[in-house]
Write a structure and sequence with these properties.
The complex is a heterodimer.
Chain A: E1 2-3, E2 20-21, H1 34-43, H2 46-63, H3 65-68, E3 99-101, E4 104-106, H4 108-144, H5 146-161, H6 164-175, H7 182-208, H8 212-219, H9 224-260, H10 278-284, H11 286-290, H12 295-321
Antiparallel strand pairs in A: 1-2, 3-4
Helix pairs in contact in A: 1-12, 2-4, 2-12, 4-5, 4-7, 4-9, 4-12, 5-7, 6-7, 7-9, 8-9, 9-10, 9-12, 10-12
Chain B: H1 3-12, E1 17-27, E2 38-49, E3 54-58, H2 65-72, E4 80-85, E5 88-89, H3 95-101, E6 105-108, H4 122-132, H5 138-151, H6 168-180, E7 186-190, H7 198-215, E8 218-223, H8 226-232, E9 235-240, E10 243-249, H9 250-255, H10 260-267, H11 274-279, H12 306-310, H13 315-319, E11 325-328, E12 331-333
Parallel strand pairs in B: 3-8, 3-9, 6-7, 7-8
Antiparallel strand pairs in B: 1-2, 1-4, 4-5, 9-10, 10-12, 11-12
Helix pairs in contact in B: 4-5, 4-6, 5-6, 6-7
Classes of the chains: A mainly alpha, B alpha/beta.
């Protein structure tokens, strides 16, 4: 007895897929599983596929940074790593793309490769945290309405009313200054960034809870939580995905902003307890631009743009892939 | 047909559903000024449905037909009255007990395009109540889904398809299969065919009749279409502004309506025969359905009632609310001056 996974979601005691395919199956065509169908639709979206591979490549770059940089750490200050004021060289590619930073010699390549670890982590984990918090609060608020909605939306308003950047700076200054803890930065973005997504999700739920399929589920004895997460959520997810992919980009840049202001993750060459991020490489490159060392802002900047674009393309593709009404 | 004998025997046996003085008010809050007051969507409705019987519920838009159906299923909170199903008042049950009761009464919805979750396959849609009420293991549930599909006349290859791949009539069949999954004894059908083409309407109606005979289902058939109701119902209740104004056997109602409102409704049915159509006398009611927030005093119908006008607007119509009383055996009407 082969069971195809219809929902494509983890089966945590919830809705068990019920299509059993056995020898009595009339249809001669092999039925595609839900995941296969999602992948097929996603694949049809060329740019999304490109974005997907770009992100995979960036993640691989981050994971295998030590190998790709030939052991040149981002902290390494070495007289052999290019002469001061000289553009990066491509000697012994790929691990010797080097440049200088101000008065210190360092490897641009090594710094952006290692920096990808922190930048990608903050971008994706921050967007995920914010989306999860925003989705749950928005869903509960929109579905139940009444005083729950009132309470949650006023809390959302309070969060929205506080200017984002000063609050971010204050919190980072208190908790993360000197700690250099990327998880703390993620938490800060997650706990401050959910408001927009909560509002989006709430609006969708207000619409969907009036739809007859919600009532139909109630009439079939389905409980509220399953209606919220199994019936309405898949229908309401599209704007969340788009907002989340935008948030990935936003948080990578946001982290750069914090670094720039000196309250984010600090990077000092020669200090192996600090972390390089694309943001702080950019932030530190302001002096380099003036003296004409264009490679310092250029390479992390390009990677930032590529990541943001790729995330947006993936969001586009996911939106189409998750919509069962899309024709393949 | 067998409905005469059924009527005769079931008169003495217990009713499957007994709705007593059902009230559903929607309080008017919101806005800066608390206006108080309430929309009296359903305002004291009484009727019974016997096992295996179809009761048609007709009335114009906004008269509270759908609200009545939803209130019976406890999908919206009931303000007052009793809904006695199988001898038990279900308005007093806990939400959990109500959920259990819903296995025995199911609903077919009006709009086949929004009543099925677009992200669920047909198998998931039909199987959901079964999984939810733990009716067997995966294999048994799968078997039951296939059985239900053939019951409603859909091919088995529909299992892994999504609702958007079906036509309106097919979707309504899916909705029927889902409603039938738990073997309910009562189906509340809220305008189940009004969103369908006329030819498809006939198919779905015939299917519903077949199912009734096969499974012994009782229907509360809510519709604004009098011809459809006549076709499928053994008994018909006419609703006006949250109240039932007339209730009797289908044949009796169409042959001999007693309430002036029913008369006006029936006169609006077009006749297929052009010769007869030319002689049809329409009773055109003046004005619109009054607001259920502030219904007219006395008989709710009196400002639009042709009979009250013919009688010179009697005091009684304007002051006293008529109760639903038996005019003849099994023919109840709520009118001070019923006309034979």
């Amino acid at each position: 007895m082969a069971t195809s996974n219809l929902s494509g979601m983890p089966e945590s005691g919830g809705f068990v897929p019920v299509v059993v395919m056995d020898q009595e199956q009339e249809s001669t065509l092999r039925q595609l599983s839900q995941l296969e169908l999602y992948w097929k639709r996603f694949r049809a979206h060329r740019l999304a596929l490109l974005g997907f591979f770009v992100i995979i490549a960036l993640i691989l770059m981050a994971i295998f940074a030590p190998f790709l940089t030939g052991g040149v750490t981002p902290y390494a200050i070495h007289p052999l790593l290019g002469a001061q004021g000289n553009p990066p060289t491509f000697d012994n590619f790929p691990w010797r793309i080097m440049g200088t930073t101000g008065e210190l010699n360092g490897s641009v390549w090594s710094q952006i490769a290692y920096g990808a670890r922190i930048s990608l982590f903050i971008g994706f984990a921050g967007a995920l945290t914010a989306s999860v918090i925003g989705t749950v609060l928005g869903a509960v608020s929109g579905y139940f309405g009444g005083w729950i909605d009132m309470l949650l939306m006023r809390i959302t308003d309070i969060f929205l009313a506080i200017p984002f950047l000063p609050l971010l700076i204050a919190i980072s200054a208190i908790y993360s200054s000197g700690n250099n803890n990327p998880i703390l930065v993620v938490a800060i973005f997650g706990f401050l960034g959910w408001t927009g997504i909560a509002r989006l999700v709430r609006a969708s739920y207000l619409t969907f809870r009036e739809q007859e399929f919600t009532e139909s589920a109630k009439a079939a004895g389905v409980n509220d939580w399953r209606i919220i997460f199994r019936h309405i959520l898949p229908n309401a997810l599209t704007p969340v995905i788009v907002a989340a992919t935008l948030a990935v980009a936003g948080y990578i840049v946001g982290e750069a902003t914090l670094d720039f202001l000196g309250v984010g993750i600090q990077f000092q060459m020669g200090n192996p307890t600090s972390f390089a991020t694309w943001g702080n490489i950019l932030a530190q490159s302001q002096g380099d631009i003036i003296i004409g060392d264009w490679w310092w802002p250029l390479f992390p900047g390009i990677l930032l743009v590529i990541t943001v674009l790729a995330a947006n393309f993936i969001g586009d593709g996911l939106r189409d892939a998750l919509d069962v009404r899309t024709r393949i | 047909m067998a409905d005469e004998t059924m009527l005769a025997t079931s008169m003495t046996t217990d009713a499957l559903l007994d709705v007593q003085d059902l009230k559903v008010y929607f309080p008017m809050t919101g806005g800066l000024l608390q206006r108080g007051g309430a929309v009296r969507a359903v305002d004291g409705v009484n009727f019974t449905i016997r096992r295996g019987e179809t009761l048609g519920l007709v009335g114009e838009s906004g008269c509270g037909k759908s609200t009545t159906g939803r209130a019976i299923l406890q999908l919206i909170p009931v303000t007052g009255g009793k809904v006695i199903f199988n001898g038990m008042d279900i308005t007093k049950l806990s939400p959990k007990a109500v959920r259990q009761k819903r296995a025995e009464m199911q609903m077919v919805f009006q709009d086949p395009f929004s009543s099925l979750d677009p992200r669920y396959t047909v198998a998931q849609i039909i199987g959901e109540p079964l999984v939810n009420f733990k009716r067997g293991n995966n294999r048994e549930i799968d078997q039951r889904i296939r059985e239900l599909l053939s019951t409603v006349g859909l091919p088995t290859n529909s299992l892994n398809r999504y609702p958007h791949e079906f036509s309106g009539g097919q979707r309504q069949r899916v909705g029927l299969a889902r409603a039938l999954a738990l073997n309910p004894s009562l189906l509340i059908a809220d305008e189940p065919v009004s969103a369908l083409d006329v030819s498809v309407q006939a198919q779905v109606l015939n299917l519903m009749e077949d199912l009734q005979q096969k499974l012994g289902l009782a229907y509360l058939f809510i519709s604004h279409n009098l011809s459809v109701v006549r076709h499928i119902s053994q008994r018909v209740a006419v609703m006006y502004l949250g109240r039932i104004v007339e209730i009797t056997a289908s044949r009796q109602l169409y042959a001999q309506p007693l309430h002036p409102y029913t008369k006006a409704l029936l006169s609006a049915i077009p006749m297929p025969d052009p010769v007869l159509e030319a002689t049809r006398q329409r009773i055109v009611l003046a004005g619109d359905l009054p607001s259920p927030v502030a219904p007219p005093s006395g008989c709710h119908f009196h400002p639009r009632c042709p009979r009250a006008q013919a009688l010179g607007n009697p005091e009684r119509c304007r002051q006293e609310s008529p109760t639903l009383t038996m005019a003849t055996l099994d023919h109840a009407v709520a009118c001070h001056f019923p006309e034979a």
